[in-house]
Design a protein that fits this description.
By secondary structure, the chain is mainly alpha-helical. Helix content is 62%, strand content 9%. It has helices at residues 4-20, 27-35, 41-46, 49-59, 65-72, 76-88, 110-134, 139-154, and strands spanning 92-97, 100-108. This is Transcriptional regulator.
Length: 168
């Protein structure tokens, strides 16, 4: 039977292998490009991931920057910056709110709606694949995995980052 130290070493090796399995390509972005009209390729390749997630949140329903910040959990300034990029890319339209000269309503353009639908479909496919993969494990195994992942996320992954850059 393996010791706790042996299991911890195996977990560390597996995390390294999982991180190294990423060949540097952005599979999600490749999926979006392959599934959208060619005219959107450059926009998709240049758009920050956060901006694509802001676009997805706008796709959940007409909103404004404050509502969007609340929906996405991002700061209002961050959302404003990404909304500007999305507007400049022709994916989002800013329009007035009737009776309110100060507030701006955000909606998707036709191209924005296309990208949002493809993005939503991509996440649904990824979720379905993960759920199917995880069905092979017992409830107890899944609870342990969830606990470990919760702890890693809560730690801010600080346990996985180098302690300092002075190891030379």
């Amino acid at each position: 039977m393996a010791t706790k130290a042996d299991v911890v070493s195996r977990i560390e090796s597996l995390l390294v292998a999982l991180a190294e399995a990423d060949d540097g390509r952005d599979a999600e972005r490749d999926y979006l490009v392959a599934s959208c009209p060619d005219r959107l390729e450059s926009t998709i390749r240049q758009m920050p991931t956060v901006a694509i997630h802001v676009l997805a949140a706008i796709g959940e329903g007409e909103t404004n920057v404050v509502g969007l910040a609340s929906r996405t959990g991002q700061l209002k300034g961050t959302v404003s910056k990404h909304v500007q990029r999305l507007v400049e890319a022709g994916l989002v339209h800013r329009g007035p709110v009737p009776g309110n000269r100060k507030e701006v309503r955000l909606t998707l353009t036709d191209d924005g709606a296309i990208l949002e639908r493809v993005h939503r479909r991509m996440h649904a496919e990824k979720s379905a694949g993960l759920r199917e993969f995880l069905t092979r494990y017992s409830d107890s195994d899944l609870q342990t995995l969830a606990t470990v992942l919760d702890d890693l996320v809560t730690s801010g992954l600080s346990v996985w980052r180098p302690v300092s850059g002075r190891g030379r």
